[in-house]
Structure formats: C-alpha cells, structure tokens
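ok here's the first one, seq then struct tokens
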Amino acid sequence: MILSAALVLLGARSSLSFTATKIGTFHIVYWEPYINQDGAVALNDGDGLNTDMRAFYWKDGQLTQITVPDSMMTLAKGVTVRGIAEDGTVLACSNEPGFETGFLWTKDGGIIKHLPADFRPEAMNPSTKDMVGTGVEDGHWVQGRMHSDVFSPIFEVDQPDGMTAMNGSGVAVGNPATGDGVNQHPIRLGTDGTQEAFASAFREPGHQEMIGAVRAINSAGWAVGGIGYVGTTPREAVTEAGAIWSPSNQLTRVPGMVTFHGINDAGYVVGTQKTVRGKKAVIYTSVDGVQDLNSLIPGAGFDLAEAKAINNHNEIVCVDSSGYNVYLLKPSS
C-alpha cells in the first residue's frame, strides 16, 4: 500500500487546465474550507475579530448558510465548520466562549445530531463520521477520539483546536499544543491511539528552532503542510517550505516560500506561495514542481492567492487575492 501510494505521488502530473466557478463573496475566510468527492464545499468566514463567524455549505451553484437555533446562540460568537462527510453531512460548532457545542448538519435536515456538550470536535472521518477533538478530564484539556458518542481520551494538551484533518481510514493529523502552549508539534494519530511525531528536524548553521504545521492527509496516509526556521536575529524572516510526509514518515521539503493545504489520492498537492508581489495559489507534483494555478485558468480575470482544498477529481477550492472571493476550480481537460 505504501509502495503503491509512493509511485502514484511520484508519477502524478499537473498538466491540467481549469475552469472557475465563483462560490461566493464573504468576509475574511477563516479556517480551512473542506470539499468532498461529490464537489460539496463547507467553509467559514468572519469579521476579522473572531466575533461573528459564519458557516456555509455550497453545492452545484447553491450557497446555504449553516445556522443554529437562538437557544444555541445565547453566548455564541457564531458557527464554524470542522469537516464534511462524503454524503454531504457537515461537522460544525457553535462558538461558545471557552468552549464549543458540536453538531452534525445536512442541507435538507438542518441539525440532525447534537454532540456531547463536553466534547470539542476538530476533525471528522469523511466515511464513518468518527471524530477527533478535545474533551475535559479532571479540569484538563485532553485530546481523544469520539465514536458512537463515546469519548476516548488519549493525551493531555495545553489548549484545544490542535487536530486539523482525518482520512477515511481514521488516521488523524494535527499540531496539538503539549508542554509549552505553542501549536508547533505536528503529529500523526493512529487509529489505535498511537502518536507519531512528524519528521521535521532540519537545522542549518546560524538558524534557530524549526517550526512546522501539518494541514491535510489523504487516504493512503500522505500528509502535507509547511515548515520553516527562524533566523538568529528578530529581523530575519521565517523561511518557509512546503512539507510532504510519506506514510513511513519520510519528509520531502519543497522550497520557495510555500505552504501546502491539501493533497488528493493521486498525489496532487495544493497550497500558497509567497512572492514579492503577494501570494499566489499553486499546485505541486514532484514531476512538475510548483505551478501557479492562475496560469492554468485561461482568461480568468482574477488572481487566486490561496488553494485551500482538493478532492480526487482535482476540484480545488481557492481564495482570491482580496481574501473575500472563493472559487471552485474544475479540470477542463
């Protein structure tokens, strides 16, 4: 399985062209958008102050806001999405001060299930709807798994919101804060609760501690994110590189001020590249390297700054340079 996945990743080519469909215009887009294999998208926006978070579901040109009853919004600051299942079910939360109330939502049924009040969901298995998230034990945050409304704690964390993604096999990835209160500890969390720190140690003369974050994982266990290191003086900027971790935890570092946000099962990786002129949305394979997605959309008339998610049909969710307009790219060839 690992060998097959490796061959697919190394052989994938990004010789594609795309057409773009506008999903909508939003406030500042927060968190990572999600896309399932059917092309349904779940995403968030906010007011820039994290006080009015809104959640949306989009499919086939129709945008629907995910709302909750007034009884859930007494103290809440809005709604955030944390995942989307292959059947279109959205994992979402109402943002309560100090904690969140999780629920499952569908376009036709609204809220179909309330999650236990002491569980803060962070990522969902798109096939089984099992989850990883944070609960409370003896007054402490603990990372764990939720299955059939039963929370199984695994390890203590300094704060919630550490896990970022979960694949259909139940393997989760994230950056939990453990020990120092900083979310810079990328890990893979196995289905049996085992933790594996992602390979991230690269130290070069004259540079300080490495930092990094994992963002996404595909069904074969390949994970992507970004890594970098801080210079020896405060004026030195963080040097960034895209990170790809194999199922056997081998790190591929892609230079060029790149951060990766998504990977599909064919090995196409999408993300953002910083340039002197600003950000641009990119697609990467080891065959073709980093390519500007804007160059693959004939006559687009806009600039895409961030590629946030990709599914197995090479459909990509992107945000333009304004930070307000979201597009869905579909291959035209």
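and now the second one, same deal
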Amino acid sequence: MRSRRSSVMLKKYGREIRISIRQKRGWWERKLTIEEMARRDFHLLGMTQTKDRIGILIFLLLQDRKFFILADEGIHKKVEDSRWTEIAGEMSVQFSKNNFKDGIIRGVRVMGEILSNNFPRKDDDINELPMRSKCR
C-alpha cells in the first residue's frame, strides 16, 4: 500500500518515472552489467513509447546493492549526463545509511523537477506510464 505522501509526490513529480526493483539476477543475467539489465527493463516496460521520449527508470538490484538511472533520448537532449551522476550520488548517500525510501523519494523528486522544468505540462498531457513500481 502506498502512503499518502508518496501518492501526492508521484502525482506531482512522477509523470514518466518508473522504478524497477529486482531482488537478484537470473542465472541468464549473470554476465550482464547493471546498465544492460536496466536497458532491458526500460524496453520491456515500454518506456521508449512516451510521446516526447522522456521516460526515466530507476533500476535497483538489491542482491548486488547497485542501482542505475536511465533516461530516454528526449531528456538527454536537454539534461547533461553530469546531472544524473549528481542525482545518483545523492541517492547513494541515502542508500549507504539504509534510508532506501528517502533515497528513492529524493531521486524521484529531483527527476520530477527536471521533467517539470524541461518538459512543462500541457493542457492535454496524460501520464503515459503507469504510476506503479515493479518488483521481481
């Protein structure tokens, strides 16, 4: 069950942001990098199908204690790679303190602000991606 605070935050900031949480790698994935796994989920979740190509995936691999942030090509046209490194660093600080919820919330908030600033809502805007997390 989602808390009221996180529901409000997702409505405000979570326009095209998805979170994929994996407990561990499948045996067929043991040679894949975290980035390759994130890219695979990005495509499987249909995140390349947004109108302006502005989907963002936070991919967490719990067993390896790693995560990867992947933004679609529309965002890369306007946002420097160094910004994603900064966000990942802020999230890592929270994760290292076992504040996983706070790390994700902070990351989503900053990513939502990036979307809002670079891709303002239009009158006919809809959330093109479901507002839910995926855990496997």
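notes on #2: Residues 4-120 form a domain with the Diaminopimelate Epimerase; Chain A, domain 1 fold (CATH 3.10.310.50). Residues 15 and 125 are 10 Å apart (CA to CA).
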